[in-house]
Amino acid sequence: MSFKSSYLQGVYNSVSARNQGEPEFLQAVREVLESLEPVVERDPHIIDTGVIDRMVEPERFIQFRVSWVDDKGKVNVNRGFRAQFNSALGPYKGGCRFHPTVNGSVIKFLGFEQIFKNSLTTLPMGGGKGGSDFDPKGKSDNEIMRFCQSFMTELSKHIGPNTDVPAGDIGVGAREIGYMFGQYKRLCNEFTGVLTGKGLTYGGSLARKEATGFGTCYFTREMLTQMKNTSFEGKTVVISGSGNVAIYAAQKAFEFKSKVVALSDSQGYIYDKNGIDLDVVKQIKEVERGRISEYAKRVDGAVYTEGCRGIWSIPCDIALPCATQNELDGNDAKTLIKNGVIAVAEGANMPCTPDAVEEFLNAGVLFGPAKAANAGGVATSGLEMSQNSMRYSWSFEEVDQKLQGIMKGIFDSSYAASKKYGMDGNLVVGANIAGFNKVAEAMIAQGVAY
Ligand code: NDP
Question: Which residues, other chains included, contact 368 with Cβ-Cβ below 8 Å and sequence gap of 6+?
Fold first, then answer.
């Protein structure tokens, strides 16, 4: 599809020429540029500032070798990345992902999205993202520790509490953050809030672990009440993934009196018509680091099916894709719509393909895009940074209250922008424009040579 604005078409052409073979990054850029059509039309002056041309190019992109020794004494080599995309609003902020599919395109797409997401939170954070193609699956604790230490040995040269503050993402949880924090402290002789998602004994924030999943449900609650005058109560919910985001989205969905009937991992999905028993899931995934298929062996009446995509064939009112990018395509969207879905919110980053998003919007399904719906994680990371700076901790309830306020604010500003720019209720456009406007204003104020 081509752009209406020849200027935006030119920006996109130049990004695709410069970033060949990077489909995820181009997909993310295209979606944002499409949303900016009404902005450029209304305010052509924005073109002269060059702010859009600048925003699509990372301020800095770091790639490095991570070598480490496994338990058998063999030397392994992985690739590490950090995209420091935009620092107009504050220090770069965004997670690190450890997964074999990680490459420059994935890190750039995630870093680019992070700019607008962080802007939407209203907290002072720029956008960045990092990670490695290291696969934590099947590795011993000692191997994980040695990898994290090696990764941080290089990364430490590029980050700092006022420069760039990484966090977790797929494959990076409290254990990995702990090992990286320890290594940073050894290297820099500094106990500082350089990472978020830390353990509670050394500067972590209460409610950080729960924040992304809880936040996705808080955002969905706003969509349901403000746009459809309904609630979670009595609804059937399907959630993909069974990691950090999925588990805590499920917990909040149950607290909101809906019934979560399915979860998945990269190999398959479970269906439990009685409602998933989350204690069993937490034992399998958080304690044993096992497969979701285990659930069906332990809970009567639950069924496991190979292949994660089939999860979208389960009839539900609310679908929360919380696993990974492009996990729900146009056909899956059609199936969900046929089965009566009324709301979809992205707990994962870019889990719905562009044709899936189009299907949902055309069918009038409420759709919460990732940069708005899953911003609760980074928002609470921002709150962790504030607590670290103050050398103080808020209670779980205090953090959760602030999180709820932030998620409502994100919904309100996205919804308002969708109306202001003539796309009433299109939260994809609304979130992109609301996030963009603030970053653009800060970049213009700071001049071209930063
Ligand atoms: P985790 O590593 O905790 O969990 C990821 C889950 O997704 C696992 O259950 C994994 O299964 C599953 N999965 C991976 N690939 C696929 C696939 N192709 N199909 C189905 N399931 C798959 O990661 P998080 O929960 O932290 O992150 C999930 C998503 O949420 C990511 O897109 C991340 O970027 C996003 N996100 C995370 C935030 C956070 O605070 N953690 C904040 C904002 C966004 P398996 O074990 O088999 O690999």
Answer: 216, 219, 220, 223, 343, 344, 345, 346, 427
With a 6 A CB cut-off, is 345 part of the ligand 1 pocket? Answer: no
Are the C-beta atoms of residues 221 and 389 closer than 8 Å to each other? no
* CA-wise closest residue to 219 among 16, 403, 447: 403
* C-beta 241 within 6 A of ligand 1: yes
Cα–Cα distance, 328 to 306 (Å, whole number) = 16
State the pLDDT confidence band at 27, using cuts at 50, 70 and 90. Answer: very high
Residues 6+ apart with CB under 8 A from 340: 315, 317
Closest C-alpha among 430, 429, 383 to residue 406: 383
Q: What angle do CA 132, 135, 140 make, to 5 degrees?
A: 120
The answer to whether residue 129 is catalytic is: yes
Question: Is the four-CA dihedral 431, 434, 437, 443 of positive or negative sign?
Answer: negative
Q: What is the dihedral of CA 10, 15, 17, 22, to 10 degrees?
A: -150
Indicate whether this model's pTM tops 0.85.
yes
Cα-to-chain-centroid distance, residue 276: 24
| Average pLDDT estimate for 305-310 | 94
Of the candidates 323, 354, 372, 357, the residue with the CA atom closest to the CA atom of residue 28: 354
Helices within 96-173 (DSSP H only): 104-120, 141-155
